[in-house]
Design brief:
alpha/beta, Rossmann fold, 6-stranded mixed β-sheet, 10 helices, about 40% helix
């Protein structure tokens, strides 16, 4: 059963067509990848799914409900979280503070309790910190840096903090935008393991954009290929790797 369905979505900016009739399905519990050359429409598709862009045609459904008109913050409350291609952390805050920001929409204390930091607000804060430290910081091996400012961290660690912040949103669908871009080989291997651990231990569905085809082949249950804003192919990793149109448009000599 698909947790996410994108049905015949088209998106244009003036006379520039970013997406044309794109349909994809993301099965619950799967790791699904969206790949394609630069400018293929991958990030535009993510922005439609996240609610940052509203398509001119087509629908987006999450767990069977039409969310095409739903605002981004409401989609987050429904269980959708994402990371970004470019690191979007608060560099002056610590690792733990950045992670906690991901969970702000889950807090239920009223304005007065939060202002005085008493009663329900204090209890929620303590429970949130405990959950983050026990479930997220330990899982992603960030304990040694939890009180360090993110500006002092390596690039690979900052990408891991972004993943941790997305997990703090308690997602059902985790959308990763080029999670290993700019990483060295060891960092890529670590991130791949963390993604699989998150899928298994959190029962999270993963949708990722990634240019590292080796990683995509290793992690994904299903792959959707975009080219010039259109869907070029879909299938298992092996089916996509063997598709002549994909090889011509995207893989080339990388295959």
């Amino acid at each position: 059963m698909n947790l996410l369905e994108v049905d015949a979505v088209s998106l244009a900016f003036g006379g520039v067509k970013a997406l044309t009739g794109v349909s994809i399905g993301v099965e619950a519990g799967s790791v699904t990848a969206v790949i394609g050359p630069n400018g293929a429409g991958k990030t535009s598709l993510y922005n439609v799914i996240s609610g940052f862009y509203r398509p001119q045609q087509g629908r987006v459904r999450f767990d069977g409900a039409d969310i095409t008109e739903v605002k981004p913050h409401r989609r987050a409350a429904l269980g959708m979280a994402r990371t970004f291609q470019n690191i979007a952390l608060f560099r002056g805050l610590t690792v733990l503070e950045n992670i906690k920001l991901g969970a702000h929409h889950t807090l239920k204390a009223g304005l007065l309790a939060a202002a005085w930091y008493a009663g329900k607000a204090a209890r929620e804060e303590a429970e949130l910190r405990r959950e983050i430290e026990e479930r997220i910081v330990d899982l992603l091996h960030l304990a040694d840096w939890r009180d360090a400012p993110v500006s002092a961290l390596s690039y690979g660690l900052q990408k891991r903090v972004e993943l941790a912040r997305a997990l703090a949103m308690r997602p059902r669908l985790l959308m990763l935008d080029e999670p290993v871009a700019g990483m060295n080989r060891e960092e890529k291997e670590d991130m791949s393991r963390y993604i699989l651990d998150v899928r298994e231990e959190w029962d999270v569905t993963v949708l990722l954009i990634e240019h590292d085809f080796g990683m995509v082949m290793d992690l994904s249950d299903r792959i959707h290929v975009l080219n010039f804003g259109c869907k070029l192919a879909s299938g298992t990793p092996q089916q996509v790797a063997d598709d002549p149109a994909v090889v011509e448009a995207y893989l080339g000599e990388q295959r």
